[in-house]
DNA sequence: GGGCGGCTGTATAACGTTGTAAATCGACGT
DNA sequence: ACGTCGATTTACAACGTTATACAGCCGCCC
């Protein structure tokens, strides 16, 4: 068996609690005593048993992070950011993936592992507000695009503004028929902030927001983007620009354009969202909205920890905006040049 | 406070242990009693406290998975496979990323969170055998490419054979100058099984294994592949094929070829490794060695659990081979056609 | 010089669960 | 009817930690 406080106490000839005090850096311990106990700790190679500590303290030191899918590099990079941010506070991260399925999201949000975790960071896709009524045995922080009016902290970039910046960029290039790829099939339209940004910016520019140029999809991967692009082209339309819900979809769309002999950006300009690494190495590099993933991860962790230490009821759930930038690359080369920045 | 066994026991008018017996499906409980206790459990919404259970049982129900980086989609997909496989056994996964830095890998392998986890699945990059001497407070399973002669289970595909299959494929296409991108800089060469496969197959075909066509890199991302490709071209060599350590590097390399006006596969054929989704949607889709990630994840989890239940010393650490296939796509279109399969 | 108060260190009781051993119960064979 | 035996249930003691309350001890003030 491993060495416990009791063993160390016996070895040092002091009480268990004194050892505990040394381990926890309790203030009132004589330097001499601290030294003596520490020597025993080192000699025996003692390390605290977290299960016991957590049982006693009611905290586990673990935060769960529930993401739709790890295959999407945006979420993978975000996960890395959360893990690092949590590590900075001595917290560790338990990873779940929901597949973006409502059932799984509900399960996770209801804390089906509530007894193991201190808090939950959830990036929902299909989750509906009513799924979240009065639960949360642990602090819950929401990430991402949906527009929830719920008593939980919510970390996101300003998706509407970011989408408008992307569409503005395309309009500045002189594009007039701008398709949107990746509206979520079967979900209430207004929830889709990026579609709303697309619509608002077109309208503001005096252009028609032609719903025939909006392609809904079931998923958000390369293949979904490719399907959507193909559907638009087969409908007889040929837009001069495409704004995709995310980078993998944009890249899938570009593949279809390539197959049909359409040149990017000459024939069709393409803008993605998330700025994943992959977009910087295709035959045509991809212009994209680049959310500050590190900030999002950090803010999410901090929000959880604030609730945790906040002794119960913090005044008001906060909606926190992270920064984003629009990074221009080859897929929208043209008149507009360089990188544009915007602050969230 | 939350409801505990004691509360349920009081509510049902029985002893704590009886409730515990019901919860744990203990054999000798009257159906009537079981029913009655269950009703109280449901009424109070009882759920076991894992910290306490684990303190008592010495198991946490958590497996740690330590990967070099989540940004690489191969590892992200592998993580998803491990999470699913663990879930099938009621285990949950704690995710770490080491950045492939030896220091971090040593830290993880030494079980710096040993008190939280029951087992560890580690995919090492820089870790050296001597770092693993006589530790393992918990079962350790190694993943991946390195060739360890150590008393730990090791799950991998046959990297040498897989690399040979890839090179064979290029040779079958008539290619004769085949570069290798992604030898690990500063590490002992023999450890690199994929380089060895490259060398062996060339030699077997009577071709020179020209070390001038091997490019070492520090990392394994798109940018590293691009750098390596650029260095080879700038050295004055122009190979007619490239075999990359992984897909991101292959894609980075293709980007450089594209920039220099070299056509894939006409001028240079390219083969990657890992078969990540991204490779299927570039302007030129990527031929790649496709490891069976689900199998690897499943086998790794099963190996950990076997040690865990194996009452201590299982006879011998096992090296388990997972399957792989070579999937041909546009980047090697030519004489050879279709998909080739190999069994690991 | 007696008492006060600030430092140190200690004994003890939890936290919620499960393993062990013992108590209870009913039925059965003699 | 009584002892026995197996099936069921219970009491109690852990698991390793920290919070609480308290016991010494010292110096210091009046």
Which key features would you list for this structure?
homodimer; 344 residues; 434 Repressor (Amino-terminal Domain); Rossmann fold; seven-stranded mixed sheet; six-stranded parallel sheet; 11 helices; 38% helix; DNA-binding
3D architecture notes:
The structure is a homodimer of 344-residue chains. By secondary structure, the first copy, chain A, is α/β, with parallel strands linked by helices. Chain A has 3 domains: 44 residues, 434 Repressor (Amino-terminal Domain) (Orthogonal Bundle); 133 residues, Response regulator (Rossmann fold); 151 residues, 3-Layer(aba) Sandwich (Rossmann fold), CATH 3.40.50. Chain A has 11 helices and 13 strands. In chain A, the strands form 2 sheets. In chain A, strands 7-6-8-9-10-12-13 form a 7-stranded mixed sheet, sandwiched between helices. A 6-stranded parallel sheet of chain A has the order 2-1-3-4-5-11, with helices on both faces. The longest helix of chain A has 17 residues. At the A-B interface, helix 4, helix 5, strand 2, helix 9 and helix 10 of A face helix 4, helix 5, strand 2, helix 9 and helix 10 of B. Chain A binds a DNA duplex (30 and 30 nucleotides) through helix 2 and helix 4.
**Total number of domains of chain A:** 3
Please summarize the sheet with the most strands of chain A.
Answer: 7 strands, mixed
Report the total helices of chain A: 11
The poorly predicted ranges of chain A are 336-344
Helix-strand topology string of chain A? HHHHEHEHEEEHEHEHEHEEHEEE
Side by side, the strands of the main sheet of chain A go: 7-6-8-9-10-12-13
What global shape of chain A is seen?
A: elongated
Strand content of chain A: 15-25%
Proportion in helices of chain A: 25-40%
Q: How many angstroms separate the termini of chain A?
A: 54 Å
In round numbers, the mean pLDDT of chain A is 86
What is the CATH topology of the largest domain in chain A?
Answer: Rossmann fold
Oligomer class: homodimer
What is the radius of gyration of chain A computed over CA atoms, rounded to a whole number of angstroms?
Answer: 25 Å
Counting helices, strands and paired strands, the structural category of chain A is alpha/beta
Q: Tally the beta strands of chain A.
A: 13
Which chains share the greatest interface? Answer: A-B, 50 and 50 residues
């Amino acid at each position: 068996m491993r060495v416990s406080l009791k063993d160390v106490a016996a070895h040092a000839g002091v009480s268990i609690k004194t050892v505990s005090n040394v381990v926890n850096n309790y203030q009132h311990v004589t330097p001499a005593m601290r030294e003596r106990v520490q020597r025993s700790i080192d000699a025996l190679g003692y390390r605290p048993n977290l299960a016991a500590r957590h049982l006693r303290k009611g905290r586990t030191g673990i935060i769960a992070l529930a993401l739709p899918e790890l295959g999407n590099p945006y979420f993978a990079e975000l996960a890395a950011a959360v893990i690092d941010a949590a590590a900075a506070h001595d917290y560790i991260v338990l990873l779940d993936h929901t597949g973006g399925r409502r059932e799984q999201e509900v399960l996770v949000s209801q804390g089906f592992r509530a007894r193991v975790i201190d808090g939950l960071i959830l990036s929902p896709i299909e989750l509906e507000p009513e799924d979240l009524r009065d639960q949360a045995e642990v602090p819950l922080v929401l990430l991402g695009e949906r527009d929830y009016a719920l008593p939980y902290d919510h970390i996101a970039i300003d998706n509407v503004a970011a989408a408008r910046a992307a569409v503005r960029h395309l309009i500045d290039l002189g594009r007039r028929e701008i398709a949107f790829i990746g509206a979520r099939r079967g979900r209430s339209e207004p929830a889709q902030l990026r579609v709303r940004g697309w619509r608002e910016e077109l309208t503001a520019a005096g252009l028609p927001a032609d719903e025939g140029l909006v392609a809904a999809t079931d998923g958000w991967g390369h293949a979904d983007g490719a399907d959507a692009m193909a559907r638009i082209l087969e409908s007889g339309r040929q837009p001069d620009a495409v704004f995709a819900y995310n980078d993998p979809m944009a890249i899938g769309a570009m593949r279809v354009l390539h197959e049909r002999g359409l040149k990017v950006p000459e024939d069709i300009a393409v803008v993605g969202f998330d700025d994943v690494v992959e977009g910087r190495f295709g035959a045509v590099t991809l212009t994209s909205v680049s959310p500050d993933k590190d900030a999002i991860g950090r803010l999410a962790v901090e929000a959880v920890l604030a609730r945790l230490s906040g002794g119960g009821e913090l005044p008001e759930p906060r909606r926190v905006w992270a920064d984003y930038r629009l990074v221009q690359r080859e897929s929208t080369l043209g008149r507009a040049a360089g990188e544009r920045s915007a602050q969230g």
